[in-house]
Amino acid sequence: MNMPWTLARQTARDAAKPLDATELALPDALGLALASAVRALTSQPTCDTSAMDGYAVAGPGPWTVVGRVAAGDPVPALALRPGEAFGVATGAPVPDGSESVLPVERCSTDGTQLREDHTAPDERGRRNDPTPRRHNGPAPANRHDHPARATGSHQPEPSPPSDRTLRWEADPSGNRAARRDGTPLGSHEASPPDDHHEPPPLGRHIRRRGEDWSAGDELIPAGSLISPAVVGLAAAAGHDTLLAHRRPRVAVIVTGDELLHTGPPRPGRVRDAIGPMLPGLLTRADLIGTTHLRDDASALAEALTSDQADVLVTCGATSVGPADHLRTVLSGLDAEILVSGVACRPGHPMLLAVLPDGRCVVGLPGNPFAALAAVLTLLHPLLDTLGGHTTRPPITAWLGDVPAHPRDTRLIPVTRSGNTAVPVGHDRPGSLWGAALADALAVVPPGHQGGEVELLA
Ligand SMILES: Nc1nc2c(c(=O)[nH]1)N[C@H]1C(S)=C(S)[C@@H](COP(=O)(O)OP(=O)(O)OC[C@H]3O[C@@H](n4cnc5c(N)ncnc54)[C@H](O)[C@@H]3O)O[C@H]1N2
Ligand code: MOO
């Protein structure tokens, strides 16, 4: 009795436990699965920073420029007061009291005095920002108060200023500039009357401390694939290493007296198509070797016992012909058979067993398209579990009323057009033509009459 397809896949997932985990340098962890969640070691940003090259300002303009800071500089030691401005570079810390940042291309200055140029288009291409909001209080102290965070909007990304001719008029040390007589610049009383434009919106172009995440936040859950972006994120969050599961080691055993490994097939002899296909299907494993065997039971038993792989993948010999020795050999090795035949087309003779020492054996049928079906049904779920991958999200698409089987699950090659799967045909068990033309195999459950289906890729 063949096992239902969904149960067979789940049985393969449950057949093993994740392999051991080690702490690896970031580049070495790429492609593995996280054994523990990535948590932020600090907040990001670690302090309020500018998202633009320009001026941090407080209160309505015009403003007196009282200092400047570049990316990489420490947080300025002073607090901005209303009517004061501070030159900032993108990514540089802004002084306490900063309420917004004016991009340099939106500013004009006559020396010490800074004004917003309301005739220059802002980064959204608008002129003379009509935003009516006003305030007099201090800037928000943490990310929970931050308008962008609270509304889910995001700060516009900076664009390089087109005009870098503005020069800072204040003390380049970052200290507050002073008049020649020693009295500080920048009080409201000292400023000439402003024009009647609204002040810049509170918080604009300031990335607030902790706006992206706070120290201790879980950024990526355990079991996730360590992608290039995960590596970059981990670095940004302060990590030098990641705890990752090791990849499963796989040995392949290709059986068949009739197989050729070079040159054109001829009557009675076929080219091995499965051996060359498998390395590309083992992206989450280490292929430690491929052995070619004649149809010989003792040679197969020897290959299954002598190998040090975590998983042994056999090709062919799953059926009931005189040369199909796999089941007999596994029985002789006291293997526990977990799956012996699956209600699916193609690939129903596929097999999954566990040897007494815990290594798993996946039996792929000899027909090449059936072998691919078995890889996707049994081998990939097993490798995911061994490698610690637990977060592979299902991909689905809409599939029309293709001929379904009354009892068995069909796996058919499809291409995707938008969210629709389109069968490509050429799907006989002995032929990889359809699969080679396809983006994925659609899982067509028994009795399917059109609707959403899962795609295996
Ligand atoms: N009496 C029955 N016969 C068969 C049944 C059955 O239920 N009862 N099932 C059929 C199905 S379905 C499949 S699939 C195959 C599975 O056969 P095996 O896994 O035992 O494989 P072989 O008999 O060695 O080969 C089958 C077929 O595939 C070709 N082959 C084998 N290896 C390769 C390879 N590496 N590359 C390309 N082609 C390969 C082989 O030449 C045969 O043509 O059993 C059916 N029979
Ligand atoms: O599973 Mo077999 O490939 O249907 O012929």
From TrEMBL:
Keywords, ordered alphabetically: Magnesium, Metal-binding, Molybdenum, Molybdenum cofactor biosynthesis, Transferase
Keyword Transferase carried by entry: yes
Enzyme class: transferase
Names of the cofactor(s): Mg(2+)
CDD domains: MoeA
Boundaries of every MoaB/Mog domain copy: 251-385
Pathway: Cofactor biosynthesis; molybdopterin biosynthesis
Region (Disordered): 90-208
Keyword Mitochondrion (UniProt): no
EC number: 2.10.1.1
InterPro entries according to UniProt: MoaB/Mog-like_dom_sf, MoaB/Mog_dom, MoeA-like, MoeA_C_domain_IV_sf, MoeA_linker/N, MoeA_linker/N_sf
Superkingdom of this protein's organism: Bacteria
Compositional bias of kind Basic and acidic residues: 113-132
PANTHER family (UniProt xref): GEPHYRIN, MOLYBDOPTERIN BIOSYNTHESIS PROTEIN
Its biological purpose: Catalyzes the insertion of molybdate into adenylated molybdopterin with the concomitant release of AMP.
Protein name as it appears in the record: Molybdopterin molybdenumtransferase
